[in-house]
Protein backbone atom coordinates (compact mmCIF):
# COMPACT_ATOMS: atom_id res chain seq x y z
CA UNK A 1 0.00 0.00 0.00
CA UNK A 2 2.91 2.33 0.71
CA UNK A 3 3.96 2.37 -2.95
CA UNK A 4 0.43 3.35 -3.94
CA UNK A 5 0.33 6.52 -1.82
CA UNK A 6 2.43 8.78 -4.11
CA UNK A 7 0.50 7.42 -7.10
CA UNK A 8 -2.82 8.22 -5.42
CA UNK A 9 -1.72 11.77 -4.62
CA UNK A 10 -0.69 12.35 -8.22
CA UNK A 11 -3.93 10.81 -9.45
CA UNK A 12 -6.06 13.10 -7.30
CA UNK A 13 -4.38 16.15 -8.82
CA UNK A 14 -4.64 14.95 -12.42
CA UNK A 15 -8.14 13.45 -12.29
CA UNK A 16 -9.39 16.74 -10.89
CA UNK A 17 -9.15 18.14 -14.43
CA UNK A 18 -11.06 15.11 -15.71
CA UNK A 19 -13.83 15.95 -13.26
CA UNK A 20 -14.04 19.47 -14.65
CA UNK A 21 -14.26 18.09 -18.19
CA UNK A 22 -16.90 15.59 -17.06
CA UNK A 23 -19.02 18.37 -15.64
CA UNK A 24 -18.77 20.20 -18.96
CA UNK A 25 -19.96 17.04 -20.72
CA UNK A 26 -23.05 16.92 -18.49
CA UNK A 27 -22.04 14.17 -16.05
CA UNK A 28 -22.88 14.28 -12.36
CA UNK A 29 -20.22 13.80 -9.69
CA UNK A 30 -21.37 10.22 -9.09
CA UNK A 31 -21.36 9.35 -12.80
CA UNK A 32 -17.90 10.83 -13.28
CA UNK A 33 -16.48 8.98 -10.25
CA UNK A 34 -18.00 5.71 -11.48
CA UNK A 35 -16.42 6.29 -14.89
CA UNK A 36 -13.01 6.74 -13.25
CA UNK A 37 -13.44 3.58 -11.17
CA UNK A 38 -14.17 1.50 -14.27
CA UNK A 39 -11.89 3.23 -16.78
CA UNK A 40 -8.49 3.89 -15.23
CA UNK A 41 -6.97 5.92 -18.03
CA UNK A 42 -6.75 9.68 -18.46
CA UNK A 43 -6.46 9.56 -22.26
CA UNK A 44 -9.41 7.18 -22.52
CA UNK A 45 -11.60 9.25 -20.22
CA UNK A 46 -10.82 12.55 -21.94
CA UNK A 47 -11.61 10.94 -25.30
CA UNK A 48 -14.83 9.45 -23.92
CA UNK A 49 -15.96 12.79 -22.54
CA UNK A 50 -15.41 14.43 -25.90
CA UNK A 51 -17.47 11.72 -27.58
CA UNK A 52 -20.22 12.01 -24.96
CA UNK A 53 -20.40 15.76 -25.47
CA UNK A 54 -20.63 15.30 -29.25
CA UNK A 55 -23.33 12.63 -29.02
CA UNK A 56 -21.23 9.81 -30.49
CA UNK A 57 -22.54 6.25 -30.74
CA UNK A 58 -21.60 3.45 -28.36
CA UNK A 59 -19.69 1.74 -31.18
CA UNK A 60 -17.54 4.83 -31.73
CA UNK A 61 -16.81 5.02 -28.03
CA UNK A 62 -15.92 1.32 -27.82
CA UNK A 63 -13.54 1.44 -30.80
CA UNK A 64 -11.91 4.62 -29.52
CA UNK A 65 -11.32 3.08 -26.10
CA UNK A 66 -9.95 -0.08 -27.70
CA UNK A 67 -7.35 1.83 -29.72
CA UNK A 68 -6.33 4.23 -26.96
CA UNK A 69 -6.08 1.58 -24.25
CA UNK A 70 -4.60 -1.24 -26.33
CA UNK A 71 -1.18 -0.54 -24.84
CA UNK A 72 -2.41 -1.90 -21.51
CA UNK A 73 -2.64 -5.36 -23.04
CA UNK A 74 1.11 -5.16 -23.66
CA UNK A 75 1.72 -4.03 -20.09
CA UNK A 76 -0.45 -6.86 -18.77
CA UNK A 77 1.44 -9.39 -20.90
CA UNK A 78 4.76 -8.10 -19.55
CA UNK A 79 3.43 -8.11 -15.99
CA UNK A 80 2.23 -11.70 -16.33
CA UNK A 81 5.87 -12.77 -16.63
CA UNK A 82 6.46 -11.43 -13.11
CA UNK A 83 3.73 -13.64 -11.67
CA UNK A 84 4.25 -17.18 -10.49
CA UNK A 85 3.02 -19.80 -12.95
CA UNK A 86 0.52 -21.16 -10.44
CA UNK A 87 -1.11 -17.76 -9.85
CA UNK A 88 -4.90 -18.36 -10.16
CA UNK A 89 -6.87 -16.78 -12.99
CA UNK A 90 -9.00 -14.61 -10.71
CA UNK A 91 -5.85 -13.03 -9.25
CA UNK A 92 -4.61 -12.26 -12.75
CA UNK A 93 -8.01 -10.80 -13.64
CA UNK A 94 -8.04 -8.35 -10.73
CA UNK A 95 -4.41 -7.37 -11.30
CA UNK A 96 -5.22 -6.63 -14.96
CA UNK A 97 -8.06 -4.34 -13.86
CA UNK A 98 -5.60 -2.09 -12.03
CA UNK A 99 -2.89 -1.90 -14.70
CA UNK A 100 -2.03 1.73 -15.41
CA UNK A 101 1.23 3.33 -16.53
CA UNK A 102 2.23 4.18 -12.96
CA UNK A 103 1.06 0.97 -11.28
CA UNK A 104 2.80 -1.01 -14.01
CA UNK A 105 5.97 1.01 -13.37
CA UNK A 106 6.16 0.18 -9.66
CA UNK A 107 5.03 -3.43 -10.17
CA UNK A 108 7.56 -4.28 -12.86
CA UNK A 109 10.31 -2.88 -10.64
CA UNK A 110 9.60 -5.32 -7.81
CA UNK A 111 12.50 -7.70 -7.17
CA UNK A 112 11.70 -11.33 -7.90
CA UNK A 113 8.19 -12.61 -8.47
CA UNK A 114 5.22 -10.29 -8.07
CA UNK A 115 2.75 -11.16 -5.33
CA UNK A 116 -0.92 -10.52 -6.20
CA UNK A 117 -1.36 -8.99 -2.77
CA UNK A 118 1.30 -6.38 -3.52
CA UNK A 119 -0.74 -5.37 -6.57
CA UNK A 120 -3.92 -5.31 -4.51
CA UNK A 121 -2.27 -3.00 -2.00
CA UNK A 122 -1.18 -0.53 -4.68
CA UNK A 123 -4.51 -0.70 -6.53
CA UNK A 124 -6.58 -0.27 -3.35
CA UNK A 125 -4.89 3.09 -2.73
CA UNK A 126 -4.24 4.42 -6.24
CA UNK A 127 -7.56 3.71 -7.98
CA UNK A 128 -9.77 5.32 -5.28
CA UNK A 129 -7.47 8.35 -5.48
CA UNK A 130 -8.25 8.58 -9.18
CA UNK A 131 -12.00 8.41 -8.57
CA UNK A 132 -11.89 10.85 -5.64
CA UNK A 133 -10.05 13.43 -7.74
CA UNK A 134 -12.66 13.12 -10.48
CA UNK A 135 -15.48 13.51 -7.97
CA UNK A 136 -13.86 16.62 -6.48
CA UNK A 137 -13.31 18.06 -9.94
CA UNK A 138 -17.03 17.88 -10.69
CA UNK A 139 -18.07 19.12 -7.26
CA UNK A 140 -15.64 22.01 -6.76
CA UNK A 141 -13.98 22.60 -10.12
CA UNK A 142 -15.45 26.03 -10.68
CA UNK A 143 -14.02 27.32 -7.40
CA UNK A 144 -10.33 27.01 -8.37
CA UNK A 145 -8.55 29.31 -10.81
CA UNK A 146 -7.30 28.14 -14.21
CA UNK A 147 -3.66 28.56 -13.11
CA UNK A 148 -4.11 26.20 -10.16
CA UNK A 149 -5.82 23.58 -12.32
CA UNK A 150 -3.00 23.71 -14.88
CA UNK A 151 -0.40 23.37 -12.14
CA UNK A 152 -2.18 20.32 -10.74
CA UNK A 153 -2.20 18.65 -14.17
CA UNK A 154 1.62 18.64 -14.17
CA UNK A 155 1.74 16.56 -10.98
CA UNK A 156 1.35 13.26 -12.84
CA UNK A 157 4.52 13.87 -14.85
CA UNK A 158 6.51 14.55 -11.69
CA UNK A 159 5.09 11.43 -10.10
CA UNK A 160 5.99 9.30 -13.12
CA UNK A 161 9.56 10.62 -13.03
CA UNK A 162 9.73 9.61 -9.37
CA UNK A 163 8.63 6.11 -10.39
CA UNK A 164 11.27 5.52 -13.10
CA UNK A 165 14.32 7.29 -11.64
CA UNK A 166 15.14 4.91 -8.70
CA UNK A 167 15.30 1.70 -10.82
CA UNK A 168 17.11 3.59 -13.61
CA UNK A 169 19.86 4.60 -11.18
CA UNK A 170 20.41 0.95 -10.28
CA UNK A 171 20.34 -0.38 -13.85
CA UNK A 172 22.29 1.34 -16.64
CA UNK A 173 20.52 -0.69 -19.31
CA UNK A 174 17.13 0.47 -18.03
CA UNK A 175 18.38 4.06 -17.92
CA UNK A 176 19.49 3.78 -21.54
CA UNK A 177 16.14 2.34 -22.61
CA UNK A 178 14.32 5.19 -20.88
CA UNK A 179 16.49 7.71 -22.75
CA UNK A 180 15.86 5.94 -26.07
CA UNK A 181 12.12 5.88 -25.36
CA UNK A 182 12.08 9.61 -24.65
CA UNK A 183 13.95 10.44 -27.86
CA UNK A 184 11.74 8.13 -29.92
CA UNK A 185 8.58 9.63 -28.40
CA UNK A 186 9.88 13.11 -29.22
CA UNK A 187 10.50 12.12 -32.84
CA UNK A 188 7.02 10.61 -33.14
CA UNK A 189 5.56 13.85 -31.79
CA UNK A 190 7.26 16.29 -34.17
CA UNK A 191 8.30 14.48 -37.38
CA UNK A 192 5.78 15.20 -40.19
CA UNK A 193 4.62 11.66 -40.99
CA UNK A 194 5.03 10.07 -37.58
CA UNK A 195 3.04 12.73 -35.75
CA UNK A 196 -0.05 11.76 -37.75
CA UNK A 197 -0.17 8.44 -35.88
CA UNK A 198 -2.67 8.42 -33.03
CA UNK A 199 -1.37 8.52 -29.47
CA UNK A 200 -2.59 5.00 -28.73
CA UNK A 201 -0.92 3.40 -31.76
CA UNK A 202 2.20 5.50 -31.17
CA UNK A 203 2.61 4.01 -27.70
CA UNK A 204 1.95 0.49 -29.01
CA UNK A 205 4.55 0.82 -31.79
CA UNK A 206 7.23 2.25 -29.50
CA UNK A 207 6.53 -0.34 -26.81
CA UNK A 208 6.77 -3.27 -29.22
CA UNK A 209 9.92 -2.04 -30.96
CA UNK A 210 11.87 -0.87 -27.90
CA UNK A 211 10.76 -3.62 -25.52
CA UNK A 212 11.21 -6.31 -28.19
CA UNK A 213 14.70 -5.10 -29.06
CA UNK A 214 15.65 -4.93 -25.38
CA UNK A 215 14.35 -8.46 -24.81
CA UNK A 216 16.58 -9.77 -27.62
CA UNK A 217 19.71 -7.79 -26.72
CA UNK A 218 19.42 -7.89 -22.93
CA UNK A 219 17.44 -11.01 -21.95
CA UNK A 220 16.65 -11.51 -18.27
CA UNK A 221 17.79 -14.90 -17.02
CA UNK A 222 15.14 -17.11 -15.50
CA UNK A 223 15.41 -17.19 -11.71
CA UNK A 224 14.73 -20.92 -11.48
CA UNK A 225 17.58 -21.66 -13.89
CA UNK A 226 19.89 -19.45 -11.85
CA UNK A 227 18.94 -21.24 -8.63
CA UNK A 228 19.53 -24.66 -10.19
CA UNK A 229 22.90 -23.55 -11.51
CA UNK A 230 23.92 -22.30 -8.07
CA UNK A 231 22.94 -25.52 -6.30
CA UNK A 232 25.89 -27.81 -5.40
CA UNK A 233 25.97 -30.95 -7.50
CA UNK A 234 27.59 -34.26 -6.58
CA UNK A 235 29.92 -36.03 -8.97
CA UNK A 236 29.11 -39.62 -10.01
CA UNK A 237 30.23 -42.40 -7.63
CA UNK A 238 32.56 -45.05 -9.02
CA UNK A 239 34.50 -48.06 -7.75
CA UNK A 240 38.26 -47.90 -7.57
CA UNK A 241 38.48 -49.93 -10.77
CA UNK A 242 36.40 -47.32 -12.59
CA UNK A 243 33.14 -49.29 -12.73
CA UNK A 244 29.83 -48.01 -11.42
CA UNK A 245 28.88 -51.29 -9.72
CA UNK A 246 28.51 -50.46 -6.02
CA UNK A 247 27.79 -53.99 -4.79
CA UNK A 248 31.06 -53.82 -2.88
CA UNK A 249 30.74 -50.72 -0.65
CA UNK A 250 34.33 -51.00 0.48
CA UNK A 251 35.64 -50.52 -3.02
CA UNK A 252 33.67 -47.35 -3.72
CA UNK A 253 35.10 -43.87 -3.62
CA UNK A 254 32.67 -41.02 -3.06
CA UNK A 255 32.85 -37.44 -4.16
CA UNK A 256 30.67 -34.58 -3.03
CA UNK A 257 32.73 -31.94 -4.75
CA UNK A 258 30.68 -29.28 -6.52
CA UNK A 259 30.77 -29.67 -10.28
CA UNK A 260 32.44 -26.89 -12.21
Task: Explain what the structure shows.
The chain has about 260 residues and is mainly α. The protein has two domains: about 5-165, no CATH class; about 170-220. Helix content is about 70%, strand content about 0%. It is built from 13 helices and two strands. The protein has helices spanning about 5-25, 30-40, 40-55, 60-70, 70-80, 90-95, 100-110, 115-140, 145-155, 155-170, 170-190, 200-215, 225-230; strands at about 240, 250-255. Strands 1-2 form a two-stranded antiparallel sheet. Helix 1 runs parallel beside helix 3 (about 40-55) and helix 5 runs parallel beside helix 7 (about 100-110). The two termini are about 45 Å apart. The relative contact order is 0.13. Residues about 255-260 have low confidence and may be disordered.
The counted number of beta strands is: 2
Strand pairing plus helix content: what structural class? mainly alpha
What's the end-to-end separation, in Å? 44 Å
The SSE order reads: HHHHHHHHHHHHHEE
Q: How many structural domains are formed by the residues?
A: 2
Percent of residues in β-strands:
under 5%
Outline the low-pLDDT stretches.
Answer: 254-260
Pick out its properties.
mainly alpha; two-stranded antiparallel sheet; 260 residues; single chain; 2 domains; globular; 13 helices
Helix and strand arrangement:
Blueprint: H1 4-24, H2 29-38, H3 42-54, H4 58-68, H5 71-80, H6 89-97, H7 101-108, H8 116-140, H9 146-153, H10 155-170, H11 172-190, H12 199-217, H13 223-230, E1 238-239, E2 252-253
Antiparallel strand pairs: 1-2
Amino acid sequence: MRDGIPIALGYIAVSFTIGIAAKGAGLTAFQAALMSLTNNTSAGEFAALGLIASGATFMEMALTQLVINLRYSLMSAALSQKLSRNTPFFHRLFIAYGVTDEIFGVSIGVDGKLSPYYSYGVISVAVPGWAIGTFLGVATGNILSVQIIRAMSVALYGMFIAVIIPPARKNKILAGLIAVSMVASLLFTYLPLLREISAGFRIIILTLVIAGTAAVLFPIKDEQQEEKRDEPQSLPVYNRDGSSNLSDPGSASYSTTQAD
